[in-house]
Design a protein that fits this description.
By secondary structure, the protein is an all-beta fold. The chain has one domain: Exo-inulinase, domain 1 (Jelly Rolls, Sandwich). The chain is about 0% helix and about 55% strand. It is built from no helices and 17 strands. The protein is globular.
């Protein structure tokens, strides 16, 4: 297949490694400042089970029913050096009505320095955060319906640090923040509840 995105996954092969029909390509990304980077495009990348930031336990990740499934307190990671563009995926919580949350670490250097989003299972938090030297700072704050249906999440970032957070293609807020750690991976994670993810597109 011809790749149109830097990273894309549908999990239709029900695999995390040894993927069926994976594909790779190279892109030249030109930013607003006129500079650019060579980026590796991957369709159906390899995913690895990593220890979540918030616990010493290592949860369980799997690819079933053409979805990425994480049980409680789990994290799935794949290599990524994308720091400008769009991170979009579908998600579904396994339960609702409590204060635990799931999310994605879109820009990730290490456990103490990254940019991440959360969807809390009580509906009160649909937010963008940054973690700098171990301290968390809120960038965009919004809410969402809180249920166990499939929903579409998207975060965009320009080379000037202009963020916009979307829920079901509707903007939930904008902000500018110039914090940018060295990017080496993208992660999905869960806290105390399980979740399923699908239709990942990073571009």
């Amino acid at each position: 297949m011809a790749l149109n995105n830097y990273i894309e996954d549908d999990w239709d092969d029900n695999a995390l490694s040894g993927r069926t029909n994976p594909s790779k390509d190279v892109y030249y990304s030109i930013t607003e400042s006129g500079t650019g980077d060579l980026l590796k495009g991957v369709y159906r990348p390899r995913w690895r089970n990593v220890v979540p930031i918030f616990t010493s336990n290592s949860g369980n990740i799997s690819a079933v029913n053409s979805e990425l499934s994480l049980n409680t307190e789990s994290a799935a990671a794949t290599s990524s050096n994308v720091d400008v563009g769009s991170w979009k995926h579908d998600f579904r919580l396994s339960s609702s009505g409590n204060t635990t949350n799931i999310g994605a670490r879109q820009i990730h250097q290490d456990d103490n320095n990254h940019v991440y989003t959360i969807a809390r299972a009580d509906g009160t938090n649909y937010k963008l955060y940054k973690k700098v030297s171990g301290s968390n700072f809120k960038i965009i704050s919004a809410t969402w319906p809180n249920d166990t249906s499939w929903h579409t999440h998207e975060l965009t970032r320009s080379s000037y640090g202009e963020y916009e957070l979307f829920f079901e293609a509707t903007s939930k807020g904008t902000a500018t923040d110039t914090f940018l750690p060295d990017v080496n991976q993208f992660r999905f994670y869960t806290v105390n509840i399980g979740a399923d993810f699908d239709s990942l597109v990073i571009q």
